[in-house]
Design brief:
DNA-binding; 6-stranded mixed β-sheet; homodimer; 6-stranded parallel β-sheet; alpha/beta; 42% helix; disordered C terminus; Rossmann fold; 434 Repressor (Amino-terminal Domain)
DNA sequence: GTGAAAGCGCTAACAC
DNA sequence: GTGTTAGCGCTTTCAC
């Protein structure tokens, strides 16, 4: 007698597949697909209910690998950044994750550690994983996207000048942002304004440097000293010490990233000097950390969330055949105290 | 005549598959597999060379989805954390990514934003994506792992007391770490030591609180004030202000995370008070940011990289049938200046 | 040492 | 509205 086989149906061995659901609900596997995906065919309400019950009771979850194989899409996007430990990139990663999740995509995170070999390996790895797109903050100005191209995987470059036609990119106007920060310092009456510039592996001329130059020139001010070092707290610290030791110590400095500014701040404190009294400081990025340094940093904020949404949008747009484009977003000056502006009266009451 | 069909072979339409490689190399698809995977069968050196050439020339990259479907493993692990923007978690994410990449696994990053609904959704999502394991820093003390269990996906809980037998977990001895931090403050002569405790969604009694209590009791000191707030800079700031406004203002405070300490530091600075002169401070986690605050934070450092490696190891071990276990790692006190210790002479010379 | 072929779970023609 | 079925690209058993 077959009467007891229902118990076997209740507990299929191993993971539950669409076949188990179909059997349990007494329908074909196609119908299960239609229900799960809401199409492409319509299903009678009664049937749908039976299937939904079966899914719930059996605890069925579609196998994403099978789906990816069939569809040629993993519903996943890849992110390649130098270091997700850097506040700017961690914010970006979070924003990209949110934007992707919103559309049902998951995020594969990879760090290149500013290392070209790793970046290449990550690109290849993501390509073989059938990601539907890659957001890349490259070490290089012209990254090697061959692996992605041959797999027809769209990519979007981050904070890239957009000089490579044919590639999607999103970024901010670095020069304009830098000008804002330097102009603000000029507005405070400074005439000897240094630049602490971050150094990248292969990038060419950074437009923040140009912005600094432009602002100085426009105000008829002489070029201040330039110090260069890594985009990191440590890099900023080293650069800050050099600046302090120089003969014509500047009265203000524009740092190309918040992390560098944080390091510079430490160097200044250690020297027993005061910010902004002895040296004023502005920087770039708008990291959360910049709001809690002492004094709080006046910084040029990048609209990271908007940029992340645009990046994910561009990726998915590219899949639908939209042409590559460069999208530039405006930055905003977050005025705090490191520049010399007075502290706002705190609205919080203890 | 078929002579010219080679040109068609050279440029297979669409993505290159293992079949194209086989045809080009004049072998069967099985042999291509053997070569790509280094087994399970041996291949003659000459044949192998032909296949490797074909792979290179055609630019073949294995399809991970097909492989995942066949093998039942995506060679991917999932990470669920409250917020990858928090330095502790961003460091963890980086370390997990490294440990996973080392073994050929990729990392699917998800943020729960401290939100139970999102955490659940992320768990289910990762389960359906056939991840080979999940590292979970849960909002709850007893997360709902049903989706993972039914899919037979191992999980490892992070910084979980290890009270749930049957679950893998990795963490540090929170009480011992807290004791270290508080003992150090006691060593500086403080007798009124407050606790700034972070609040989690569903976690029960946090052992850092117990450690603080134990240290005080062991020294015969009275219980200091406790203030509670979110594990964030903002939370710390609010809590700091409350502490400063209280009648018997403490002369020292132990904060349960670096982020809170950063916020407290701001509150103290704004009040025109001095750290460590007026109020000494120690905290917990060992974030990079703690080294660059002013003054630099004395903090209990968690060995994040080691923990990440252990977590990934446990996941893969579980796949091989190893029993679940709780691994506890030692913390270390990074002595800097917020506690009252003198600054080390800096070894760097500008 | 090499090849043929079954089948992983799913989608979407196409037939009814 | 529902069912049948052909593959997506890969791994691996089994035959040779």
């Amino acid at each position: 007698m077959e009467a007891m086989t229902t118990s076997a149906v209740h507990t299929p061995r191993g993971p539950v597949t669409r076949k188990d659901v179909a059997r349990y609900a007494g329908v074909s596997t196609a119908v299960v697909s239609y229900v799960v995906n809401g199409g492409p065919k319509k299903v009678a309400p009664a049937t749908e209910a039976k299937v939904q019950d079966a899914i719930r009771i059996l605890g069925y979850r579609p196998n994403a690998a099978a789906r990816a194989l069939k569809l040629g899409s993993s519903e996943t996007i890849g992110l390649i950044i130098p270091d997700n430990t850097n506040p700017f990139f961690s914010l970006l990663a979070h924003a990209v994750e949110d934007a992707a999740a919103e559309l049902g995509y998951a995020l594969l995170l990879t760090n290149s550690d500013g290392n070209l070999t790793k970046e290449r390996r990550n690109i290849r790895n993501l390509a073989s994983r059938q990601v539907d797109g890659v957001v890349l903050a490259s070490v290089l100005f012209e990254p090697d996207l061959a692996a992605l191209e041959s797999a027809e995987i769209p990519a979007v470059l981050l904070n890239h000048g957009g000089k490579s036609p044919g590639f999607n990119s999103v970024g901010v106007d670095l020069a304009a942002g830098a000008r804002m920060a330097v102009d603000h310092l000029i507005g405070h009456g400074h005439t000897n304004i240094a630049l602490a510039m971050g150094t990248n592996t292969g990038h060419d001329y950074d437009l923040r440097e140009e912005g600094w130059l432009q602002a100085l020139a426009a105000a008829g001010l002489p070029e201040g000293p330039i110090v260069r070092g890594p985009f990191s707290r440590e890099g900023g610290y080293a650069v800050g010490r050099r600046l302090l030791a120089s003969a014509d110590r500047p009265t203000a400095v524009f740092a190309s990233s918040d992390m560098q500014a944080i390091g510079i701040l430490r160097a200044i404190h250690e020297a027993g000097l005061n910010v902004p009294g002895d040296i004023a400081l502005t920087s770039f990025d708008g990291a959360a950390e910049a709001e809690y340094s002492w004094p709080a940093l006046t910084t040029v904020e990048q609209p990271v969330r908007v940029m992340a949404e645009a990046a994910v949008g561009a990726l998915l747009g590219a899949r639908r055949g939209e042409p590559a484009a460069h999208r530039t977003f405006p930055t905003e000056l977050r005025v705090r105290q490191s520049c010399g502006c007075p502290a706002q009266a705190s609205s919080a009451t203890p």
